[in-house]
Amino acid sequence: MPRRAEIPVRPLTADPVYNSQLVTQMINRTMTRGKKATAEQIVYSALETVGEKTGRPAVEVLEQAVKTVTPVLEVRSRRVGGANYQVPVEVPQRRARTLAVRWIVTYARDRREKHMSDKLANEIKDALNQQGGAFKRKDDLYRMAQANKAFAHYRW
After folding, report:
1. Number of helices (H) and strands (E), helices first, in the chain?
2. Conformation bin of residue 55: beta by default, left when phi > 0, alpha when psi is -120 to 50
3. Bridge partners of residue 89, in order along the sequence
4. Fewest CB within 10 A of the end CB: N or C in the chain?
């Protein structure tokens, strides 16, 4: 990581099926061991399942689910006078979206369904309904930020 220069952001290409950058981000996050084709199959079948179950366009449902899970506040550790404080800070838009996608995929992996596409589809559906692991994580993070509001003046 360079100390002075800003790191240029690499633009994401939209995926060929839905023409959405969010779907590309979901595919890249789902991918393990460089197997992109497998990750694409998983995400596309999950989106197809979600589209059938909700009766709405799959990308629209995914965007709504990600928006539901997107955090507003997070806590950052700050060292002041020999003590560490958990300081609540607002989450930048780009990081918030990345965290949301990461949480959806991570908590989908921990689910008990048989196939990853089913796990991902159900986690997206749960996130849409403000349930599931990813939404719980967002809620816990927000609660922690509210609990540490007293240290907000240490923000940098």
Report:
1. 6, 2
2. left
3. 74
4. N
Nearest 5°: phi and psi at 80?
Answer: -130, 120
**Neighbouring-strand partners of residue 83:** 80
Structure-token pair, residue 3: 């100390």
Amino acid at 10: R
The SS3 call for residue 113 is coil
| CB 95 within 8 Å of CB 156 | no
Counting residues of the chain whose pLDDT is more than 90, the rounded percentage is 85
CA distance 70 to 64: 10
Interval 31-84: pLDDT, tens: 999 999 999 999 999 999 999 999 999 999 999 999 999 999 999 999 988 999
d(CA 51, CA 23): 14
Q: What's the burial of 88, exposed, middle or buried (CB within 10 Å: 0-12/13-18/19+)?
A: buried
